[in-house]
Amino acid sequence: MSLKDELSDLLNQGLADLKKINDQAALNDLRVSLLGKKGPITKVLRGMGALSAEERPVVGSFANEVRDQLQAAIDDRKKALDAAKLARQLEEEKIDVTLPGKPTTRGNAHVIQQIIDQLEDLFLGMGYQVLTGPEVEEDRYNFEMMNLPKDHPARDMQDTFYITNEILMRTQTSPMQARAMEKHDFSQGPLKMISPGVVYRRDTDDPTHSHQFHQVEGLVIDKHITMADLKGTLELVAHELFGDRFNVRLRPSYFPFTEPSVEADITCFNCDGKGCSVCKCTGWIEVLGAGMVHPNVLKMAGVDPDVYGGFAFGMGPDRFAMLKYGVDDIRNFYLDDVRFLNQFSMKG
Ligand code: 2U9
């Protein structure tokens, strides 16, 4: 068979084979076998040395033509396969946007977080900063700087989760206040802050005790702060949160970090002060502890107690939530039972 006939056969056979190809990989294999370096056309072109000078250009140009035709046919086949693949994908991956969506359950702020959020909003509105800090604390910030020296009974191993001798789970959020006081530049103005967060006590859990609960503590330090500022602030908070008919009453108390110290009561929301089971017939409900910051606490944070002073208070959002919603067991807040938690959903 002449080289020209061989090329003609190659072309016909190639075109026939191409028609049978149905996927990209097979098409690529065929392209390599027909037009590749080891393919028949390359072989024919290599064998042209044996041809006469007249035959060589004729066969050469025919070989080029065969190669171009095959290449064009391969390109067309590739385009057709690509288009078919795309059409198949469009069909298979079609989404019916009119189908109803799957319902998803939306989360909800925890009931205690809702109370903390409300307090944060209120204090932010009065120009306080909201500062949060570590729950694993240094003894120095949690106790020492809060006027609770090494031999103080509140530091008992029975009451505190110690991690090492000097590191513990904070028992109050006041270490954050000590940190802030230490850092504050009083020449720039007063320090007004609240520190909300979780605290830990080595208590046995029961309906009124939890080894983990929340605190929102507040601190204001400036020149000329008096107990009247404390009472005015607490009254404002009570009026904002509950309404103007709520009064605040201060009773003397004791805390190591404040002097004088007070406990604050608010008119019973259940009986409007008339006396009921919620307020144990007193007409008042104890809501927080407070006082004027102890001079030792100021000194230890590097603040001069002869120039600066202030008030501090501490409240328990867990207790607020229990009073507000009539929850009789604090452990409910920490069991993560959605049947309990969903009762405080804000989704309406
Ligand atoms: C600094 C100085 C003083 C914060 C205070 C209380 C009184 C208090 C309790 C309320 C309920 C804790 O959550 S609770 O169990 N707190 O009675 N806390 S005065 O005094 C401070 C804080 C920071 C630098």
TrEMBL record:
GO CC, one annotated term: cytoplasm
TM regions (residue ranges): none
Alphabetized UniProt keyword annotations: Aminoacyl-tRNA synthetase, ATP-binding, Cytoplasm, Ligase, Magnesium, Metal-binding, Nucleotide-binding, Protein biosynthesis
A Pfam family that the UniProt record links to this protein: tRNA-synt_2d
Aminoacyl-transfer RNA synthetases class-II family profile domain sequence ranges: 111-323
Superkingdom, natural source: Bacteria
Cofactor: Mg(2+)
Reactions it catalyzes: tRNA(Phe) + L-phenylalanine + ATP = L-phenylalanyl-tRNA(Phe) + AMP + diphosphate + H(+)
Cofactor: how and how many bound: Binds 2 magnesium ions per tetramer.
A GO BP entry: phenylalanyl-tRNA aminoacylation
EC annotation from Swiss-Prot or TrEMBL: 6.1.1.20
Leader peptide range in chain numbering: none
Location within or outside the cell: Cytoplasm
One Gene Ontology term of the molecular function aspect: tRNA binding
SUPFAM superfamilies in the record: Class II aaRS and biotin synthetases (SSF55681), tRNA-binding arm (SSF46589)
Annotated residues for binding of Mg(2+): E259
InterPro entries assigned to the protein according to its UniProt record, in alphabetical order: aa-tRNA-synth_II, aa-tRNA-synth_II/BPL/LPL, Phe-tRNA-synth_IIc_asu, Phe-tRNA_ligase_II_N, Phe_tRNA_ligase_alpha1_bac, Phenylalanyl-tRNA_Synthase, tRNA-bd_arm
Subunit structure: Tetramer of two alpha and two beta subunits.
Entry similarity comment: Belongs to the class-II aminoacyl-tRNA synthetase family. Phe-tRNA synthetase alpha subunit type 1 subfamily.
Protein name from the UniProt record: Phenylalanine--tRNA ligase alpha subunit
Organism of derivation: Secundilactobacillus oryzae JCM 18671
